[in-house]
Amino acid sequence: MKMKLIYMMLCVSSVLGLSACSVDTIDLKAPQETVDEPGTGNETDTGNDIPPSDIRVELDLTDSQNTLGEMRDMWLVANRISPTTGGNVRPGLKINTVRMIGGIKKNENGVNVPDLEFDTAFYDETLGDYVYDFSPLIDRINKIRNRGTDIHQIVLDQPPWAFQRGYTFIPEGQKDNVNFRENERISIYGNSLPPYDKAEYAEYIEALMTKLIDEYGKDEVKTWRFRVGSEIETPDHWFGTEADFVEHFANTEGAVRKVLPEAIFGVHTRPPSFIYKSGTVTNYKSEVIKSFANAIIEYADQNNIRIDFWGISDYPIITSEKTRHPKDKYEELFAQLVEHPKWKDYTVLDLEEFSIISKIGSGYLITSDTAQADTLLIAMTDELHKKGIDQIFQWGQRKAEHEDFRTKALADMAGKVRYPASLISTGNANPDDIGVIVATNSPQTDLDILLYNYNPADLEAESTPEILTSIKMDVPVGSVFSYRKRLLSKENKKFQVFMEEPGADDYLIKNKGSGFNKYGNGSGGVTSNVLTAEGQLAFEQYVFTNTSEWTDWQQIVTVSAGNGEAGSVMHIESKLPLFSYEKIEVKKLN
User: Fold this and answer.
1) 90, 100, 334, 347 - which has most CB atoms within 10 Å?
2) Residue 195 neighbours by CB under 8 Å, 6+ apart
3) What's the pLDDT tens digit per position in 234-270?
4) How far apart are CA 316 and CA 506, in angstroms?
């Protein structure tokens, strides 16, 4: 007789006497003991009957020609701004260093002033020439390498302060369509002006590249990427015009490749459709500020400039429906680039700044460490992986324990072959909400399945469809496999469960705009970003044990595929709440 074995994770009791529980069910022929490791137990699920479900996921692993290519880890790079003590990223990640050559600012008595400590170029009035000191750059690179961190990319911004020499500034609020304003001397990022003397700047970049090769050797330096621009059409990143940047881009590229012709060189812009503040703000020449992408593509084509990679940023606001649609991301961010008639197919596409946030304002950005954000990240990775996006650069990720299961679940699939899946609605659930990523090695002894349930329409919607994953494999009937599962939903998020307690909204900080919200406790649970001191204390004292955990390993035996078809099939059941994801690992037993 068929029975249900129910694995119930620990429950968190609320003050109302209710419980937050995560429940998973597995159909068994007879109740038997679980096993701790694959292949050590006797429990079996022959799956002779196809269990009922709301959504059926069908996987056919018998056709080795019907694949989606090799899975790659898209989460291998972390961003760091002007690092001084080393890469400070968790093991296994590469680093993208931003603002490494100088041009940064500091605050003195409430006033922003140039910070010359890390500048690598100066103007010597006595000599009447520019002089270089690359020791601050070399020192920081050495500290990164000494930590065992690989450099993925060096951003050649901001220009050292000396390259503002020659500019005339007019008072703030004025505009003569020729000169920069006083308030543009120093941006929130530092020096955001084009180098005044373009020829001197090219000589400086040549000297910089020569120094890097002298220090680290050509073979290593040619593995690093060099980038110009960071969301360059944002005024505080670049106060110049489109024409100013195209000239700066070409000048820098020419200098880099004069020393290292095979250098990996690229750019980071806003999407081609971008218009800053709907055109209500203009630059120092009274031009509407918009994306430079088309102009760069066309200039590079006309002048035979090879752009090896192109970066875009994305900061989805989880509380804004228009920014949280994963299936729209490629079209919004990249499609207009690759559809340009002069686009080169060899150019690698990256998402070079990314974070899912709950709120943004002047001087603060609050990341969203929620099940909704987790599931959006999984869904975006799925969509962008299929479109060929290479990497998504992360913020944070400083310590080994900062590796989230949401990215580790994907990283563990890297190097395996990805297969497509068919989703069939057999109940009332919407198959459009369900996504699946499938990867297996060759021969097919290990299989990874990542299911997710995400609907951007309503963050508070609830549904828990029953999912049946049917896996057809080229193995004899009666083949024995072992599998385990791990589910993560909002019931496994301490902050989200805490915020459901009566009166928890009173703990949110209210003194910035309309106040913070329950979707943003910050990366790594930094609740000081959103909770009052009283709220932080209450959160620290809140007892929570319902963390996401792996189930024990279970054995399963394949059954006939039916209709006389070769191979055999296994069925695995899941209950997948809206805004959750579940990793299933399957191993062949010898």
Assistant:
1) 100
2) 159, 163, 201, 248
3) 999 999 999 999 999 999 999 999 999 999 999 999 9
4) 26
Q: Which of 473, 492, 497 is nearest to 583 (CA)?
A: 492
Structure-block tokens of residue 114: 């140039």
Q: φ, ψ for residue 215 (rounded to 5)?
A: -80, -45
Alpha-carbon gap, residue 367 to 370, rounded angstroms = 9
Alpha-carbon span 286 to 280, nearest angstrom? 11
Strands 55-60 and 422-425: antiparallel
**Where do runs of H (alpha helix) occur along 260-367?**
293-302, 329-330, 336-338
The pTM score is 0.89
DSSP string, 534-574: HHHHHHHH--------BPPBEEEE-EE-STT-SSEEEEEEE
Q: How far apart are CA 456 and CA 530, in angstroms?
A: 23
By the 8 A CB rule, do 289 and 244 touch? no
pLDDT tens by residue, 70-128: 999 999 999 999 999 998 999 999 999 999 999 999 999 999 999 999 999 999 999 99
Place of tokens 């020439």: 129
* Other beta carbons less than 10 A from residue 446's beta carbon: 17
- pLDDT tens figures, 469-478: 999 999 999 9
Q: Residue 569: which H helix or E strand, with range?
A: strand 568-575
Per DSSP bridges, beta strands 480-488 and 554-557 are antiparallel
Q: Quick one: tokens of 94? A: 């590469």
